[in-house]
Amino acid sequence: MRRIAIGIIYLLVCGVTTATAAARVTFVSPLSGSQAIGPLALEITTDAPNVDRVEFLVDGTLAGVARKAPWRIAHDFGTAVDAHTIAAVVWSNGYKTSERAEVRTAAIVAADSLTVDLVEVSLRVRASKPLRISDLRIRENGVEQTLRDLRANRGPATFVFVIDRSLSMGDGKLAAALRAVDAATNMLRSDDEVSVIVFNHNVAKPRTIARGQSVARLFGDLTPSGGTSMRDAIASIPRGQRTYAFVITDGGDRNSQLDEETALRRISNTRTVIDSLILGSSPSRFLDRAAKNTGGSVVDTSRDSLAAALKNLIADINSRYTAVYQSHGTQKGWRSIAITPRRGITIVNARKGYFAE
Questions:
Q1: Which of 224, 220, 124 minimizes the C-alpha distance to 178?
Q2: What is the pLDDT of residues 83-118, one digit of tens each?
Q3: Which residue range forms the structural domain that includes residue 142?
Q4: What is the number of structural domains in the chain?
Q5: Backbone phi, psi, residue 194, to 5°
Q6: 307-319, pLDDT tens digit by residue?
Q7: Phi and psi (nearest 5°) for 80?
Q8: What count of other Cβ atoms lies within 10 Å of the Cβ of residue 130?
Q9: Which end of the chain is more exposed for a tag (fewer CB within 10 A), N or C?
Q10: CA 293/CA 98 separation, integer angstroms
Q11: Do residue 36 and residue 133 come from a single domain?
Q12: Same structural domain for residues 134 and 164?
């Protein structure tokens, strides 16, 4: 009897000591309480070891399977904004173990309308944990807005590199800019689109860069020459889908036909972010205003540190959030945007507004 009791105690102790904690499964997209409409990425992160596959279900129906990290699939929710239950089942350890997580998206309510402007706000934050919709308040022209979505992944985008090739970009500056763009494009997603605009007193048309093409080789025959039409070059950035533009210049503008206000109006739409890298310390009020209006930044750098500075900006974009709301404003012209975070969250940078046509 004594041996049996000891054996039972031994089994109980072993059972306790070999138990393992459940793996964590966290949704990256969509977030709970957001609205799901049209094509949208379903993505999770997990600390489960030896993952075999991740199954995504929408309202109880299998929507797709991810077999390798990042654990993500695409799903089209159509044009109706209904509430959905989205689940992810993580199978691991030779399909012997499974963990499940769910989020619930929100439906559009009767007082809402899909005819209002859809506004995307790029922002960078510092926070100890992933943001939720309830962590932010957004006001447009002082009026409270309803946040529809908050995306931790930026999704596919267009990247435009606007490169100064004027006479002042000599002494290796132009060559350094081309090499820096080559290094930066290696950090982009496979479904991103890339183009380059070069300018002096004339502005060249955007040139599409295919995956694997070298910007330094394509523009290797360029020599610094002529004046500077910086405002005209930035205003020529194509509008439409989400665009991140990087202006590489040593500052100054002596030849643009567009004045500052007209150029700002053209770039201050809701889907373009302007970042500028200035080789030297030449101040530019226009670049400062362009960055402030679009949620970008201005970085003073040098020929030798340019590549590292551009890489930092790309890394920053790859980890930033996009907040989406539907504006109920009717006023044309400039609409200001103010974002207030909860305590413990710091907004590093965010769009300050946009022009409504």
A1: 220
A2: 899 999 999 999 999 999 999 998 865 544 444 468
A3: 113-154+320-357
A4: 3
A5: -130, 135
A6: 999 998 998 887 7
A7: -90, 130
A8: 15
A9: N
A10: 47
A11: no
A12: no
Of 303 and 152, the one with more pLDDT: 303
C-alpha distances (whole Å) from 298 to each of 80, 180, 185, 339 are 40, 16, 19, 21
In 3-state terms, what secondary structure has residue 104? strand
With beta carbons less than 8 A apart as the criterion, state whether 228 and 168 touch.
Answer: yes
Q: Residues 239, 219, 256, CA angle at the centre, nearest 5°?
A: 50
What token pair was written down for 352?
């300050």
> Using CA atoms, how far apart are residues 23 and 49, in angstroms rounded to an integer?
8
Cβ-contact 49, 58 below 8 angstroms:
no
Q: Which backbone phi and psi does 293 adopt, to 5 degrees? A: -70, -30
Say which amino acid occupies 49: P
Q: Give the CA radius of gyration of the chain.
A: 25
Q: Are residues 178 and 130 in the same domain?
A: no
Residue type, position 316, single letter:
D
300 and 210 together in one domain: yes
Beta pairing partners, 56: 64, 88
Bridge-based pairing state of the strands 272-279 and 298-301: parallel
For residue 9, pLDDT over 60 is answered with no
Residue 117: predicted pLDDT: 66
**Residue 65: predicted pLDDT:** 94
Report whether 124 contacts 347 (CB < 8 A).
yes
CA dihedral 219, 304, 211, 248 (to 10 degrees): -60
Instruction: Dig out the tokens for 330 from the structure.
Output: 């009717």
Separation between Cα atoms, residue 66 and residue 72, nearest integer Å? 6
Burial of 77 (0-12, 13-18, 19+ CB in 10 A): buried
